[in-house]
């Protein structure tokens, strides 16, 4: 009996050890702070506002905030609206934007929204600045604002439709045409990279995925801590799962915008800046940030992005697919489970079967989520609806989408600058820029997760779009505050530290100011890590200096009773030129200097002065072209060197592919009239120099006889042949070509390399009707349909092209004729073409019946 009394408590403790550890967290309800003072009355809307902020953010299932942060009421004021003011001696667009009269009737639409500058132009007044008007595809995406808090593109802030009197051209080898760059773009290059190149990442949990994104995140000019990542909403419902993220980025062009002082503003952004109050009103300035974002792109890459998330339950990973590293290799190297490609190994097929049996076909569609940006909307929708069990359809959908990206690209990589740098060309621009910078700092701090309370078990707090704090829990824990369970492989009671929000900046002392934070959210304990970073930050007190400068330059913006200083407006534009070091304000006596864009030379005096009568005085000047553009050469003719422009006197050497004979001039020159002489349009190539061959040797399928010699065929002369995906080393474009055409191009000196089958859309074994049968098909006269040939028909002697291939994901390379390879495809087998020549080793395989 005594022994039983001893054993019972021990048994109870043993049983309790299996109960999940739970710490209580109480719901935290939202609490608003008091409203601030009413703002001055707005002269445009005749309203005034006041703002309140959240002092306690909702968390752990607490009640979200109700009501808005801004109150508005009508008011009366004698202050006018800036949009009602005139443009002086400049041209006024219908929106109110003022542009230089030099841009009127120049053949370009420089009034972004209404084209008013080209209305009612008389023939004698019209002048053409450039012979080209089409910008690169979807160039407007380079001028959109970006909200770093939400990770979203916002309204247009840069005018990408105006050429500003500039004639900058760029050539696209993929499109085979020139495009004209808008005034906003300094550099632009068409360069396709990574098309159809998949990469994969394997994560043991949602936590590991989020933490890796957090470590990568570095946003220039912003406070760190905003966690924007793919599938954020979907991951909120994923518990204890392994994640596989499959990615493909397609880059089609790279761009660099001009510095902020040279960027033309979009008309909607200009109107928003014009109506901003000159006194600080956070509600008004925050509206601008919410509508146009916190930043804008200074440079970036255009293209498309594809992301697919595959989530697999941890239990299944450990029980059904126990050899996890092998499984990971199957997914990340062959995309077997993802079913984009069916190439696989025996081991991967075993995993495939285990995977399907563990989940069942009815639930398999819930395991994957896909997102795509860039390309045509219809093809995006089709790609995002992919299913795990339809590999061939998925591959076709991806190829269709990838092919549309070059026509409808978006910004997929970017470097950012703060939006307040674009405040200009409006009254009191200097003080408005100062206020927008202050509002940006407040807006970023409002949305920072440092306002959230610490999560239990070292969970990571996040701030949602609706100002609700949530927790990302570590493996082994769950609940609103990660309070249930315990961390995997972690000592009990170990708590890592977290930073509080920064305090407000102190007053200036010795020309510097400071702010502080503490490592107490939570305080580290039980051997946990102290926070990374410094608890104190100092900064120069440049803000006060900026205000003093603005009070001197724009005194009326601080006190409406003061007279503004006498100034000149924006300097007149110069066709194919611009002002060096432009400023927000030009007081009387200011001097400026003009210069020309690349490829143009300034003739005349480059200096202009703001005179006492508040007008610009400048002498005659002109930017005269000193270059020729890239010559347009006939197909098959190569030029060296090839670049975007050439100065007068430069030459280009013309040549034919190896063995070809040039008919016409071998050299052209950029003349003083800026034309290429002689004109290269009539230059041609004769076939390659004939090679004497023995009578008994037949020509290759990509060659033809010329008397008793073999010469290269032109690709269109090729007969039907096996289809492959091939990439031009010159244009980096991947296309569907036949084996014969690739050999013909090689024969003519063109450089092509084989690409993966998924890089282009290959024809499928089909319902072709006679007589349109493929090389490996024959006509069934009874049905009028094409059928797969027999192996004997493919093995007959003939001028077959031999290829090196792998069948059904096997590791052994086999030498096949193109007919045999096509026959395997016709029978539904997977054929991976490695080379368009015989394998180095000599195994061969005949297709079965």
TrEMBL record:
Q: Where in the cell is it found?
A: Secreted; Target cell membrane
Family matches, as InterPro entries: C7_KAZAL (IPR048825), FacI_MAC (IPR003884), Kazal_3 (IPR040729), LDL_receptor-like_sf (IPR036055), LDrepeatLR_classA_rpt (IPR002172), MAC_perforin (IPR001862), MACPF (IPR020864), MACPF_CS (IPR020863)
Checking SUPFAM superfamilies in the record gives: Complement control module/SCR domain, LDL receptor-like module, TSP-1 type 1 repeat
Entry keywords, A to Z: Complement pathway, Cytolysis, Disulfide bond, EGF-like domain, Glycoprotein, Immunity, Innate immunity, Membrane, Membrane attack complex, Repeat, Secreted, Signal, Sushi, Target cell membrane, Target membrane
Return the Gene3D superfamilies for the record.
3.30.60.30, Complement Module, domain 1, Low-density Lipoprotein Receptor, Thrombospondin type-1 (TSP1) repeat
Disulfide pairs here are: 93-111, 596-623
Give one Pfam hit by family name.
MACPF
Q: Which residues form the MACPF domain?
A: 126-451
Q: Domain Sushi, which positions?
A: 566-625, 626-687
Would you indicate the residue range of the signal peptide?
1-24
GO-annotated biological processes:
complement activation, classical pathway; innate immune response; killing of cells of another organism
Q: What is its main location?
A: secreted
Describe the function of this protein.
Component of the membrane attack complex (MAC), a multiprotein complex activated by the complement cascade, which inserts into a target cell membrane and forms a pore, leading to target cell membrane rupture and cell lysis. The MAC is initiated by proteolytic cleavage of C5 into complement C5b in response to the classical, alternative, lectin and GZMK complement pathways. The complement pathways consist in a cascade of proteins that leads to phagocytosis and breakdown of pathogens and signaling that strengthens the adaptive immune system. C7 serves as a membrane anchor.
Q: Which family does it belong to?
A: Belongs to the complement C6/C7/C8/C9 family.
- Assembly information from the UniProt record: Monomer or dimer; as a C5b-7 complex it can also form multimeric rosettes. Component of the membrane attack complex (MAC), composed of complement C5b, C6, C7, C8A, C8B, C8G and multiple copies of the pore-forming subunit C9.
Q: State the protein's name.
A: Complement component C7
The organism of origin for this protein: Chanos chanos
